[in-house]
Amino acid sequence: MRGVTSTPPRVSIAEMIWSWIGAFLGISAVAYLNYVVLDGSDLGLMLGSFGASAILIYGAIKSPLAQPRNLIGGHIVSGFVGVASYQLFGPCMWAAAATAVATALALMHITKTLHPPGGATALIAVIGGEKVHSLGFLYPIIPAGLGALIMLAVALLVNNIPKTRKYPEFWI
């Protein structure tokens, strides 16, 4: 249980600032569309799992888990799994929740789209309120896929402004 290496060095102040700018703009874009453009509709774009995605795609841009394939694929795959799990096991919420997260993990591994916030996207499909449940299989597209796509667009812009940051590492 002993670690095999030491803690990584702290990132530069410039890296922290660019990460902050990216996270602020990415979440702002999704939140603005959610609270202003879609206000009053049955659609929503804000998912708690996008907070974790923002940390990866703006703060850990070299991580394989932060790349576009993983971001988009992880949310969409997990969204479908979460909806299916709720529809199959909804009356037994503990089974629906466990099945959603475990199956999302397995399918993200199989599809090479592992993105840890996807586990939360699957879980939200199960434990979310009536507004989430009423979306059914639209949920993986809107909000999960579209919100992730908006955050990706911001990541592509912000992460490539400074010469010290290049994103993505790979697409497919």
The secondary-structure class comes to mainly alpha
Strand count, sense and closure of the main sheet?
Answer: none
**How large is the radius of gyration?**
17 Å
The helical percent reads: 55-70%
Mean pLDDT: 96
Total number of domains: 1
Q: What coarse outline follows from CA principal-axis ratios?
A: globular
Low-confidence stretches: none
Work out the helix count.
Answer: 7
One letter per element, helices H and strands E, the order comes to HHHHHHH
Distance between the termini: 35 Å
Instruction: Give a count of the beta strands, DSSP E runs of length 2 or more.
Output: 0
- Our estimate of the beta-strand percent is under 5%
Structural commentary:
It is a single chain. With 172 residues, this protein is an all-alpha fold. It has one domain (13-158). It is 65% helix and 0% strand. The protein contains seven helices and no strands. It has helices at residues 13-37, 49-59, 68-89, 93-110, 117-127, 130-135, 140-158. Helix 2 (49-59) runs antiparallel to helix 5 (117-127). The longest helix has 25 residues, at 13-37. The radius of gyration is 17 Å and the shape is globular. The termini are far apart. The mean pLDDT is 96.
Describe the structure using short key phrases.
172 residues; mainly alpha
Secondary-structure blueprint of this entry?
Layout: H1 13-37, H2 49-59, H3 68-89, H4 93-110, H5 117-127, H6 130-135, H7 140-158
Helix pairs in contact: 1-2, 1-7, 2-5, 2-7, 3-4, 3-5, 3-7, 4-5
